[in-house]
Amino acid sequence: MNETDKPGVVCKAGQLPTEFLPAERATPASISRDSAAIAGTPMFQRVLGMIPDAVLILNPERQIVFHNEAFIRLASHTDPRKILGLRPGEAFQCIHSDETQGGCGTTVFCRECGAPKAILKAQAQGHATEECRIAVKSGDALDVRVWTTRFELGGKTYIAFAVTDTSHENRRRALERIFFHDVLNTASGLRGLTEVFSEASAEEKVEVHGMIQGLSNRLIDEIQAQRELAAAESGDVVPKIEIVNSRQIIDEVADTYRHHDVAKGKTLRVDDKTVTNDLGTDKTLLRRVVGNMTKNALEASGSGDTVTLGCDLHGGEIEFWVHNPSVMPESVKLQVFQRSFSTKGSGRGLGTYSMRLLTEKYLRGKVSFTSEHGKGTRFMARLPSG
Are 115 and 128 in contact (CB under 8 A)? Predict the structure, then answer.
């Protein structure tokens, strides 16, 4: 199968291939004419200059023909002259913007991005609002809310593309939601153990009582950890580093979720080859990461399925992982770690975002996943073992 035969790729005669929106661009002369037409409307310029949000004016090919000063500040551009003719993702230096010949709007990732979707809706319906998370080449990520409006000027149709940075707002809201998400997970495990305790034999009650005590202490740890996160205005905290045993983390998480509501009808097992290794990390945050991987895997599994968790050594790093037999749809794979993404409705589905936030921002690690037919889905959190 060649490139133009792949599903989703549009490649008609004389057109560039694309996975979503048309790839063709206007000529430099056309861009200059459009830019001059807008710049030649003083009132238009003054109004855009007064708006505190970043604003772009796009031609029908989605290229920038005008921008205000607020956009320069938001996108951190040092040379505004190089912006004209770019598409929004290219101007923001999105990591996917140069993966294809057509650029912004033409990759498979663009199908799930709020920016090109807002442009497409405005072209068809007149206006749109979308949330968007842009991973930029510097390694940072920008969370924005995009408003688009179709308008005419001088007999030509343009799109006004306004952007508000919502990173700080989203970070605070997401940290609060992650807290409730994780505390409810622990509380659900605690409730499950109390139900087991009421039906246990005298000998079993000793063991279950110890597990209930452990979960109660964990609940207090998570509340304390969240209070410290919320107190940090920038979202940066100094993790409480202590020596943690990898097998102990895996066993504690397994004990918690075996009695969780999402584990009913399913098997949760610890891999026989799980390593017993000491590492310096924040125990509470690491437990939250592995716990979220486990809960998500159980939620994605069907009755009778087996979810396996474990950890392996890879040179100077230790990898905590959870596997389930299901496979994620392609649309989910493309946005699984995004803050704004959820398959479970508003305010839910924060487990994968939490994994990335806690692992990469606070634990000096890296999260990843694989999901293939015949192999199932595996989420990994790799941390320094030292």
Answer: no
Residue 74, phi then psi, degrees to nearest 5? -65, -45
Q: What's the rounded Cα separation, in Å, for the pair 363 and 261?
A: 29
The CATH fold assigned to 3-165 is Beta-Lactamase (3.30.450)
Instruction: Report yes or no: 365 and 309 within 8 Å, Cβ to Cβ.
Output: no
Identity of residue 306 = T
| pTM for the model | 0.53
Q: Where are the chain's structural domains?
A: 3-165, 169-384
Lowest mean pLDDT among 17-26, 177-186, 299-308: 177-186
Tokens 């938001």 -> residue: 74
- Quickly count: other Cβ atoms within 10 Å of residue 44's Cβ: 15
Amino acid (1-letter code) at residue 106: T
What are the tens digits of pLDDT across the range 49-90? 778 888 999 999 999 999 988 888 888 766 777 899 999 999
Query: What's the pLDDT at 233?
Result: 37
116, 118, 141, 143 from 128: Cα distances, Å: 11, 5, 22, 17
Please, which residues bridge with residue 153 across strands? 156
**Is the C-alpha dihedral spanning 370, 376, 379, 380 positive or negative?**
negative
169-384 — its CATH code?
Answer: 3.30.565.10
Q: Distance between CA 287 and CA 17 in Å, rounded?
A: 45
